[in-house]
């Protein structure tokens, strides 16, 4: 291994030590150990160390084809120490600023969605439903008015017919009137019996259903 390769490897490992320190602080910032289940924390820790180990080995492979030397661990430690003493405070402040910016941007997007998309769509749906209800009420009122008008016209048309039948009824002999009354009473009785039969049948059917 040439001196240039060794120098590049040391610089890379120092940089990876700093990156590891920043990654560790970021990981702890988002993990919130006291609020998590121990098993979840344990699994996350294992995954974190695996990812960091693979990342360091990948950079080492790019620098010197993956050859391990004692100074590599020393360079990692120096990079981590440099981060802790020089960059940790700055990085944590920048991290908090970035998190705050992301949260504010997310809230802005939510408000934008609420006021630009959700509220107009809801208002449009409410307006359409109200319009349909209004049209339905209008059509129903119109239908009632037309029906009343038709009934009035029918009454006016049938009124002379009614007068004619009343006049004919008055002119009929008494024995014919009595016969008609008997037929009418019989028909009314039959209709009443049929009605009572159906009412009893419906009542029994409802009881059996229960």
TrEMBL record:
Pfam families: Spore_YabQ. The lineage of its organism: Bacteria, Bacillati, Bacillota, Bacilli, Bacillales. This is Spore coat protein. Keywords: Capsid protein, Membrane, Transmembrane, Transmembrane helix, Virion. NCBIfam families: spore_yabQ (TIGR02893). InterPro entries: YabQ. Signal peptide: none annotated. The chain crosses the membrane at residues 7-27, 39-61, 68-84, 90-109, 121-143, 149-169.
